Amino acid sequence: MAALVPDLPKVEQHIVEMTNQVRREKNLSTLKVNAMLAKAARAYAQRLARTGQFSHTADGRNPGQRAKSAGYEFCAIAENLAMDRANAGFDTGQLALQAIAGWMNSPPHRANILMASATEIGVGVARAPGATPKFISVEMFGRPASHTIKFEVVNLSGATVTYAFEGKTHELKPRLSLVQSTCMPGEISFSKPAGFFSTATEIARMPAQNGKRYTLKTGTNGSVTVDIGSRTNPK
User: Fold this and answer.
1) Which residues does 153 contact at the CB level (< 8 Å), separation at least 6?
2) Which one-letter DSSP state was computed for residue 192?
3) Would you tell me the crossing angle of helices 92-104 and 8-25 to the nearest 10 degrees?
4) Number of Cβ within a 10 Å radius of residue 73
5) Which pLDDT score, from 0 to 100, does residue 143 have?
6) Which stretches of the chain score pLDDT less than 70?
7) Of 73, 132, 171, 202, which sits 20 to 30 A from 25 (CA to CA)?
8) Do 79 and 136 touch, CB atoms closer than 8 A?
9) Residue 122 forms beta bridges with which residues?
10) Which residues pair with residue 154 across a beta bridge?
11) Alpha-carbon distance 57 to 54, whole Å?
């Protein structure tokens, strides 16, 4: 009995669809196919299949370098690899399902599929030479550089304040400012730190927005308020 032969372009499509199905189940955004990421993924799948190597650095480069060589400027990048073989071969849906199942059962690969900052995807699948059907699948995840979130916090109040973002707390003394860039959308929490006779108090909490300036000012009765405006130099 002849081995099953999958339709590789359809396998790639199914992998994208299954990845997005998993993300929807976790209330994450669906990923759009990016032609440059797909180009990088296919080229690397073909290389791994041709050479018999299997690692994220088999060509002497890392996933980010391969993405850039394909023209993809990124804020965040990640890559999954799968190698599947069977004497009976695979039908189209079976090969895609096997790749996804393997990734979902591996914590690092699962984390890539569920990467909250990712917005785009590219998939490549190639068959290796040899009598036993063997296939290499490469799945790349990206967030383009144009989606970088950059904001500024300016403390014009007379008090030291803190703001928490991405699990880190930053202290900002009076008349100082800080510019932060991130790939991950998130919430900023502004607070007045605890003193000798007072406890820490939250000033405000809001989503971080690209190109915004958050200015802390002294309000009535010594309170601190947050004014939101646009940065004059967003670069």
Assistant:
1) 163, 170, 172, 177, 178, 180, 188, 213, 214, 216
2) E
3) 40
4) 11
5) 97
6) 1, 196-198, 232-235
7) 73
8) no
9) 140
10) 177, 215
11) 8
